[in-house]
Amino acid sequence: MVKRSHSVLRRLLLVACITFAFVCVIIILSWISTTRQLNAAREAGVFASAEEGMRDRITKGYIKPDDYQIIYAGTNSFDGSNPHVWYVIACVWGGHRADGSATGSKRHDWDQPGSFFLNTKGGWVYVPEGAFPQLMGFWMKVFGLAGPGSSQPTHDWGSSPQRDCDF
């Protein structure tokens, strides 16, 4: 009976050690991934606001647009629980895209680009959707890398564009 309880205790201890090691590996890999992605984003540009970052993306992505307007800039969470993860949407009229293609489509004459921006302690950075900005935002909060952000949008859904630009 004593040998059997030692065997069960050793198995439980082994399972606990493996689980602990697995959790440690997840945390370490998340730290490495998050910091690498943030460093790459910082190298591409740090902005005073998410809106400034979107204006920079429009400047780099469009050639001689007639006009543009930011129509939403706020948290990507509806309850504002991640104030450092923002999504910004703009309307761009006229000109053409940097790749030479025309702005707009057969249905309308505007583009409606949207981009994620994360607030770090040093400012706002652009993060592409493929980098999983929501997940990065979670780990930024865990590791203390997130800036304060704001749960209040600067351009809310209620602020309609000054020109024709439907969702």
Q: Show unreliable segments.
A: none
Strand content: 15-25%
Encode the helix/strand succession as letters.
HHEEEEEEEH
Average pLDDT figure: 90
Distance between the termini: 71 Å
List the total number of helices.
Answer: 3
- CA radius of gyration is 22 Å
Largest sheet: 5 strands, antiparallel
What does this structure look like?
This protein is an alpha+beta fold. The chain has one domain (about 5-145). Helix content is about 40%, strand content about 20%. The protein contains three helices and seven strands, in the order H-H-E-E-E-E-E-E-E-H. The strands form two sheets. Strands 2, 3, 5, 6 and 7 form a five-stranded antiparallel sheet that branches. Helix 1 packs across helix 3 (about 135-145). The longest helix has about 45 residues, at about 1-45. The model has no long low-confidence stretch (mean pLDDT about 90).
How are the SSEs ordered, and which strands pair?
Elements: H1 2-44, H2 50-61, E1 62-63, E2 67-75, E3 85-93, E4 96-97, E5 110-111, E6 114-120, E7 123-127, H3 133-143
Helix pairs in contact: 1-3
Question: Any key phrases for this structure?
Answer:
elongated, single chain, five-stranded antiparallel sheet, 167 residues, alpha+beta, 40% helix, two-stranded antiparallel ribbon
Describe the structure concisely for a colleague.
With 167 residues, the chain is an alpha+beta fold. Helices cover 40% and strands 22% of the residues.
